[in-house]
Amino acid sequence: MNRVPRGPSVVALGGGHGLFATLTAVRRFSDDVTAVVTVADDGGSSGRIRSELDIIPPGDLRMALAALAAPDERGGLWTELLQHRFRGNGALAGHSVGNLVLAGLTELLEDPVAALAELAGVLGVQGAVLPMAQVPLEIAAEVTGLEDDPRVVRTIRGQVAVATTPGRVRRVRLLPGDPPAVPAAIRAIQEADVLVLGPGSWFTSVIPHLLVPELYDALQRSSARKVVVLNLAAEPGETAGFSTERHLQVLAQHAPDFRADVVLADAAAVRARGERDNVGRAADRFGARVHYRELSVPGTFTHDPERLAEALAGFAGVALPEPGRPRSEHTLHVAGPERTAAGTEGD
């Protein structure tokens, strides 16, 4: 007999540490969670595996599995193993165990979705982790500020290169331009009660989901409540100097017809009345209302799981479980805040 999932059906779209934060929050009030994950990483362990084996980069997918793994001793052990990164100077140096396991399963089963489902079963994942496309993607960005003439636009290709460019990113696109979406991801969006986009690297983890035509069409047609979660701060390189308002503006530039219900912003990041007015006008382009909450771990640029969970649960129309309810958490061991160096976000 199949167990009835606890909570609303939630689909979270993103990648890396931003998606990890969302999933860690959402699992506090729902077991019916699907992660739809970017597949454009070309740095670190993921980039090496992608280049050598011509498969979907596994790093962001591995991190999503870790976020949704069963909150028990066995799930914790497997999560720690998958996140373990080999040290030393040999061929394995820098690779995470989980990336290699996913790569091996993908070769054996000849299907990345089947590989993810198999590993999810080992981890006791309640929900699913899916790639946003069936093929590895490449990010291409139009960038200014790299030449003496500020009007000159250069094309920068590759997620790491885009995330670390000293220029100003104006627009991104995917290569190939019309990638096939994963059917299971489309179905999950169609059946969702709540859709969450962001936080995360804006140009390389968040916006790309709106550039996959089938995925975008499903998002537009969905009757689910749509929540856009903004970053706590601009990222060095990719969105350096961006205001909260600017993040919404570039999202609208890439997906002018996109509609959302809620824009969730950190209250500490947008304090001035005038700036909040600007953010409100930017959200109006999506038909969304801005909600401000204290979302960060004090003194950091990291989302607090409990605070984010409380906000998202409210938008989903449910209450968080009682504080005394046992529910262990897996910890993602990273150096520094969510604003991490490019190529390491999900590698």
Structural overview:
The chain is an alpha/beta fold. It has one domain (10-316): Rossmann fold (3-Layer(aba) Sandwich), CATH 3.40.50. It has 13 helices and 10 strands. The protein has helices at 16-26, 44-53, 59-68, 73-83, 97-109, 112-123, 159-164, 183-191, 202-206, 213-221, 244-254, 273-284, 305-316, and strands spanning 10-14, 33-37, 127-131, 138-144, 154-157, 168-175, 194-197, 225-229, 262-266, 289-293. It has a 7-stranded parallel beta sheet with strand order 3-2-1-7-8-9-10, sandwiched between helices. Strand 9 (262-266), helix 12 and strand 10 form a beta-alpha-beta unit. The longest helix has 13 residues, at 97-109. It is globular, with a radius of gyration of 19 Å. The two termini are 37 Å apart.
